[in-house]
Design a protein that fits this description.
Blueprint lengths: L4 E5 L4 E6 L10 H14 L7 E6 L4 E3 L7 H4 L3 H19 L5 E5 L2 E3 L1 H7 L3 E5 L3 E3 L11 H10 L2 H10 L2 E3 H6 L5 E3 L4 H14 L2 H17 L4 H6 L7 H12 L9
């Protein structure tokens, strides 16, 4: 595996994916987008995994987005950009559609493509000094429609337009107000808070977490609750984990779910 994307398997339940280009603040390149997509495609098939944390290496930046130095060779025409977009959008899709709960651990800069990666995650936790934005207008470029879709799902139309039209890089506090992040904590506590969130997720019944994610994504996609999804909601009663959870609740003990 390329060292530009690191995969740290913390235990059988928790994996950490790291954007590993700290000398460039983890700016994304085409090989990184390709490798990141492959990593998530592989992780998505892991039935034992309960949570994935994604972060940038170095503590100074999640990612500022795409490496501008790559544009001359890789994105200097619409044809090249479209080819590049296949990898970028494919990777965002792998992250967004991953059935496993995902947590973005955001330290420092989270801009452009970095914000898109974080936006595909289920939960986003950042530090007070983190900075956000999509200043793509300065390059005379549009955000591709498939990338804008991510921003619209995280915020809303008016907020997305404000971010794109103004092109400002703004504070973590404003990002929280815009619902771009779930939680803002002291910089020194970001890792601890993200892992606390991941641990809480891992403690729950794995099938339940995946079902909740499936339900929510399906409702957002269809704009309603389909009969199929509604019926699927009762499957949990047939699981061994329900019996474990029910008995633990009655006995006031901590459940140890088996993912069955």
């Amino acid at each position: 595996m390329s060292k530009l994307i690191k995969l740290n398997q913390k235990n059988i339940y928790l994996a950490e994916v790291v954007l590993n280009r700290p000398d460039k603040l983890n700016a994304m390149t085409k090989p990184m987008w390709i490798q990141l997509g492959k990593v998530f495609k592989t992780l998505s098939k892991n039935k034992k995994l309960r949570c994935i944390i994604i972060r940038g290496e170095g503590g100074k930046s999640f990612s500022p987005g795409n490496d501008i130095g790559e544009f001359k060779e890789e994105r200097s025409s619409s044809k090249l950009a479209k080819d590049y977009g296949k990898y970028l959008h494919g990777t965002l899709g792998e992250i967004f559609n991953c059935p496993i709960p995902t947590v973005a651990l955001i330290e420092g800069i989270c801009v452009g493509g970095g914000l898109e990666i974080a936006g595909c995650c289920d939960i986003r936790i950042c530090g007070k000094s983190s900075r956000f934005g999509v200043p793509i207008k300065r390059l005379g470029l549009t955000m591709a429609a498939k990338e804008l879709e991510v921003l619209l799902k995280v915020t809303n139309y008016s907020t997305a337009m404000e971010i794109l039209f103004e092109g400002r890089v703004f504070s973590a506090e404003e990002a929280f107000e815009k619902k771009l992040v779930n939680r803002v904590v002291n910089d020194k506590d970001v890792e601890k808070e993200a892992y606390k969130s991941a641990e809480l997720i891992c403690e729950g019944a794995p099938k339940v977490a995946r079902w909740h994610k499936q339900f929510a994504r399906n409702i957002l996609k269809n704009g309603k609750v389909t009969e199929k999804i509604n019926n699927l909601g009762y499957k949990c009663y047939d699981t061994e984990d329900f019996k474990i959870g029910y008995k633990s609740f009655l006995n006031k003990t901590k459940p140890k779910f088996k993912n069955k």
